[in-house]
Design goal:
Length: about 130
């Protein structure tokens, strides 16, 4: 089992920044891929970004490229999502997820490939 705990959400004005954290515990290994997804009110959950735990390969959704940065701290078993230039359309509940058998392959954006999910942290961007 793997436990994922997100933190760092909140209310921010458009153009502002937030940094989300996701701490992983339990049966974590270097084969993991960690991803961020989000779900806005009334919409389906969508991919945001993902990173290989071991080699650091990164995948971003087009909607966040150039504004969001995903990174990881292997020593802390924590993945981060730095969100800059936030827009009202970034308002959503953000979820951290773990794909436990991705290895060094390119991080997937496919939701059902992820095996474990956090409880989510809410981000609200006011205009």
């Amino acid at each position: 089992q793997v436990q994922l705990i997100e933190s760092g959400g909140g209310l921010v004005q458009a153009g502002g920044s937030l940094r989300l954290s996701c701490a992983a515990s339990g049966r974590t290994t270097s084969r993991y891929c960690m991803g961020w997804f989000r779900q806005a009110p009334g919409k389906e959950r969508e991919f945001v970004a993902a990173i290989n735990w071991s080699v650091g390969r990164i995948n971003y959704a087009n909607s966040v490229k150039g504004r969001f940065t995903i990174s990881r701290d292997n020593a802390k078993n924590t993945v981060y999502l730095q969100m800059n230039s936030l827009k009202p359309e970034d308002t959503a509940v953000y979820y951290c997820a773990a794909d436990i058998d991705r290895g060094t392959y390119y991080p997937t954006s496919t939701e059902h490939e992820y095996d474990y999910w956090g409880q989510g942290t809410r981000v609200t961007v006011s205009s």
